[in-house]
Design brief:
Elements: E1 3-5, E2 11-13, H1 21-35, H2 39-49, H3 57-71, H4 83-100, H5 102-109, H6 116-139, E3 158-160, H7 165-168
Parallel strand pairs: 2-3
Antiparallel strand pairs: 1-2
Helix pairs in contact: 1-2, 1-4, 2-6, 3-4, 4-5, 4-6
Length: 180
Amino acid sequence: PEAATSPDGKVFISSEATLSEAELSRHEAVHVLEAKNNPLFYDYYEDLQSRVLRTSDEYRKIAEKINDQYFDGRLDVDSPDSLIPIYRELFAYVHQFIQTDPTWASERFSGAFSDWDGVVEASRRLAQGLENQGAADDAQGYGVSGRTAYQAGLRESAVRGMMEKSAIGRTGDTPNPLHK
């Protein structure tokens, strides 16, 4: 992976990352919000979860790629037990690409959801919530500027360097499975 978020919300970015900071920050911000039990994550997750077309070919293809890339193919993508880990990655990718390349996001992901406009709106609300959170953090003296408020979830510990398998719970330095 190009980047990963540890269970305590620290973000690790590979020194060989090829994605832009915008793409990395938007993807990892979703994971940071989850790790921090932030209500923004749960609102976003519930919005998208209610729109997933689990039986669509598009969803299955994406779920299988995520399973292969992140879980070495160990998950049964048809099992309810596999939904949470797959959804976590899928929803982070959806937000990442809606915010950085909405046309490509629509082409790649819309077939996996029943209401793409609702998914886009959920991503917009998440982005706005992150911006608002960054502004609130500024007011509380956290030193996150307006220009970087979106990345507020990453401010604690974005560490550039090779990720260690034990630190991230994932295997290898492999490319992003859903990248263009």
